Model the fold of this input.
Amino acid sequence: MPRPLRTIIQGVTYHCYTRCRGRRELLKGRYGKKYFIESVKMCQEKYDFKLIAAEIVANHIHLIIKT
Done:
């Protein structure tokens, strides 16, 4: 069963994280991290949020964003 949609509130700080399925290291190395950073920049343009902090590990990421 899918989770319900989340409500995004302006001016709130969020901790976002995700993991690669099966502990695969998809973000390992320079290319994977660079690709992810470019993806975050594209999302910033579309959804208008400020990136406060980011941690990119080989198999997961953490983002602190403010809407």
